[in-house]
Amino acid sequence: MQLHNSGAEIYVPDGSAVEKALARTTHLGISAHQDDLEIMAYHGILECFGTQGRGFAGVTVTNGAGSPRDGLYGKYTDDEMQVVRRKEQKKAAYVGEYSAQVFLDYSSAAVKDSKNPKVVGDLRQIIAASKPQVIYTHNLADKHDTHVAVSLRVISALRELPDDARPQHLYGCEVWRNLDWLNDGDKVIFNVEAHENLAMSLVGIFDSQVAGGKRYDLATMGRRRANATYLASHGVDESTALIFATDLTPLMNDPQLDAQEYVQRFINHFAKEVSDRIAKLS
Ligand SMILES: [Zn+2]
Predict the structure, then answer these.
(1) How far away, in angstroms, is 278 Cα from ligand 1 center?
(2) How far is the CA of 40 from the centre of ligand 1 (A)?
(3) What is the reported pLDDT for 72?
(4) What pLDDT shows up at residue 237?
(5) What does the alpha-carbon distance between residue 86 and residue 33 come to, in Å, rounded to a whole number?
(6) Backbone torsions φ then ψ of 54, nearest 5 degrees
(7) Of 60, 50, 57, which Cα lies nearest the Cα of 18?
(8) 40-63: b or e for each residue (b if 16 or more CB lie within 10 Å)?
(9) What is the CA(66)–ligand 1 centre distance, in A?
(10) How many Å apart are CA 220 and CA 243, to the nearest integer?
């Protein structure tokens, strides 16, 4: 496989050939940064962990140069930070028993440039080689530009692929903005309470981020716990950890469907629910 950037790499934790590692992928996560996969696509990691016949592969699109840093990492240059973050992502791939971990090594600016065809080209190749059943990426209501750009590039890549190379499901997941606000009927709900130790380990591995000034480990576990408890006001907790997502599959399958219009539907449903309740009780 010929990826565009010279710094691109496909790491296979168990040492299998790259083609084999991609071909055995059933669940694929595509994220902007190192550590996003462990936050948003943990459902896919869990579905495959220790399970015969399934494989999770991760794709990290950016080089991670622009992350905030403090403490031990406070004086690291952007170049040094990229090295550390790639190493951390490899550690997560090993601990989570990923089938493969792809690094595309783009700058954030390249990902956000909608006229740059390279990101879409790389994604198309990886998806075609892995033919996953499920893809997890960022949701379109995320508040980080690079995250939303990645999601749009994933949708473009999928639209350019033939039907038999597309997954059955494309999900937009939570990182920079919870999806608790979605109406319950619009939520895709993933129960991720199993292997809590693994969940904590995977986010905790990213020391340059966590010790570097952002408690993503505690925040991610807290969000999952809050999702589980606050889902239903009149029922007892049925899980101790939930991840919410939006179903982006219609956008993949219908090239006429506009991404902005699609996400607006969810926002409209939310607005209507809030107004209807106030009207009912006034
Ligand atoms: Zn990110």
Answers:
(1) 36
(2) 10
(3) 85
(4) 80
(5) 10
(6) -125, 150
(7) 57
(8) bbbbbbbbbbeeeebbbbbbbbbb
(9) 10
(10) 10
The pLDDT of residue 232: 85
Q: Which secondary structure element, helix H or strand E, spans residue 171, and what is its range?
A: strand 169-173
CA separation for the pair 147, 40 (Å, rounded): 11
Distance in Å, CA 64 to ligand 1 centroid: 9
The 3-state DSSP class for residue 224 equals: helix
Residue 41 to residue 245: CA distance in whole angstroms = 10
Q: Are 43 and 136 in contact (CB under 8 A)?
A: yes
Cα–Cα distance for residue pair 203/222, rounded to 1 Å: 12
Q: Amino acid identity, residue 257?
A: L
Of 185, 91, 89, 188, give the one whose Cα is nearest residue 135. Answer: 188
Tokens of residue 230, six digits:
């606050």
Q: Label residue 71 by pLDDT band (50, 70, 90).
A: confident
Tell me the two tokens of residue 44: 């896919």
* Residue of 201, 199, 205, 206 lying closest to 240 (CA atoms): 199
Mean pLDDT of the chain: 96
- How remote is the CA of residue 167 from the centroid of ligand 1, in Å? 23
Q: How far away, in angstroms, is 32 Cα from ligand 1 center?
A: 5
pLDDT at position 64 over 90 = no
